[in-house]
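Work Package 4 report. The design task specified in the project plan requires that, given a folded chain encoded as structure tokens, an amino acid be chosen for each position. We show below one input record used in the internal validation round.
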């Protein structure tokens, strides 16, 4: 993989918690940290086009292969592909957040200027900022709106309990999707099933052709992608979801996307995912299989996510941005999720920071990297700490018992070392 990196982007592997974590990095390690978290079926490699431009904005940019993916391996199990029968607990949300924090600490940082997550990584980035706002100073969520922690029953002592919330794993929802014409099934339970890894790894069209079709159908290149809001009051609206989200009932994922594979001419016109780029994904997933990433879907089952209910009602209080492709159905697959995230869950998400990029589908940072960097730059400039202004403030404000050493990276007080950004947040 390393031979495909752009100049200025390097790779290394370090012990992080129970992992040997592989990550890419760009920029000066003394600069504020920006952490990039990929989704499925992606790799740190998926950030290759935006890492150096973000680093040029004055940041140290780090993108790991997350747990279960690529070249990151667990030291607690044999160095072999992940299997369905392996313990799924390490793939629950809280543990993936722990991985991110452990990486930050390994890098010698106390705070992260921004955590940016795409797809599954968007959920983890949101949880990072929700749970540890002292570490994660801002967040950019990409292609997957944050749905918040699981709720707990509220005020049921005085009012009738509301109907149980529906989830895609429930028998009721599965039966509803199966009743559609033609019968369908949701991709999340499928991805959590025992057969999904073998289905994908042994795709009848071959791994290269399967991944090419999968990336194509979820991009702006596929003309059938015309996403729009769905109504929770009109359940049959879900039938409008494309076949990679609501799959034919009897189909595997390779079978679901095969009819929509791009032509040779369409592949030749594709400038955002060349055959050389795709070969990186094919080589890595051909070596590791998909089960590590698929275990993240298993970690979304209610019996596992219920532990997050300890954060019920908690909101993201740090500055937040949502960025996706305009042709990405991921924005709307859950009715009203975008509005709820902006209006309820992220208390510091401005209107201008909900951005849908033209000419991009789900893989927005690969399809339109220049536009993505432009909007991220605007956001980071708005939320960044101004070191010069902070120095001026500290010069003219007496803080008893505080001995400040300004270095552009850290401040020190009798209680320990904290980042400049964190110190500024304390002043607010």
């Amino acid at each position: 993989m390393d031979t495909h990196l752009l100049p200025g982007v390097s790779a290394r592997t370090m012990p992080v918690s129970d992992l040997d974590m592989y990550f890419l990095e760009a920029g000066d390690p003394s600069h504020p940290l920006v952490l990039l978290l990929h989704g499925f079926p992606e790799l740190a490699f998926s950030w290759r086009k935006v890492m150096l431009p973000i680093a040029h904005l004055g940041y140290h940019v780090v993108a790991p292969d997350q747990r279960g993916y690529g070249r990151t391996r667990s030291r607690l199990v044999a160095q072999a592909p992940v299997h369905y029968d392996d313990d799924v607990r390490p793939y629950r949300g809280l543990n993936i957040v722990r991985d991110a924090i452990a990486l930050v600490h390994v890098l010698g940082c106390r705070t992260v200027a921004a955590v940016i997550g795409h797809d599954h990584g968007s959920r983890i980035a949101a949880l990072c900022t929700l749970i540890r706002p002292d570490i994660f100073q801002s967040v950019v969520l990409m292609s997957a709106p944050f749905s918040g922690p699981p709720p707990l029953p509220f005020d049921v002592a005085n009012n009738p309990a509301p109907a149980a919330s529906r989830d895609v794993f429930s028998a009721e929802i599965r039966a509803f999707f199966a009743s559609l014409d033609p019968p369908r099934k949701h991709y999340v339970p499928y991805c959590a099933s025992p057969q999904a890894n073998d289905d994908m790894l042994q795709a009848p069209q071959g791994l290269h052709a399967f991944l090419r079709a999968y990336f194509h159908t979820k991009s702006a290149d596929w003309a059938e992608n015309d996403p729009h809001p769905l109504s929770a009051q009109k359940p049959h609206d879900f039938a409008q979801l494309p076949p990679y989200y609501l799959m034919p009932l009897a189909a595997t994922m390779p079978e679901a996307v095969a009819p929509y594979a791009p032509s040779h001419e369409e592949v030749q016109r594709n400038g955002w995912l060349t055959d050389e780029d795709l070969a990186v994904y094919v080589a890595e997933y051909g070596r590791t299989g998909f089960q590590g990433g698929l275990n993240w879907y298993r970690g979304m089952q209610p019996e596992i996510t219920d532990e997050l209910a300890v954060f019920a009602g908690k909101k993201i209080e740090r500055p937040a941005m949502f960025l996706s492709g305009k042709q990405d159905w991921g924005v709307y697959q859950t009715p009203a999720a975008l509005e709820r995230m902006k209006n309820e869950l992220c208390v510091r998400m401005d209107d201008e920071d909900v951005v849908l990029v033209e000419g991009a589908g789900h893989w927005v940072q690969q399809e339109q990297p220049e536009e993505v960097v432009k909007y991220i730059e605007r956001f980071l400039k708005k939320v960044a700490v101004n070191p010069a202004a902070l120095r001026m403030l500290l010069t003219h404000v007496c803080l008893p018992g505080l001995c400040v050493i300004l270095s552009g990276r850290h401040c020190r007080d009798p209680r320990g070392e904290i980042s400049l950004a964190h110190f500024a947040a304390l002043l607010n």
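The first helix runs from residue 51 to 55. Validation will be extended to a larger panel in the next phase.
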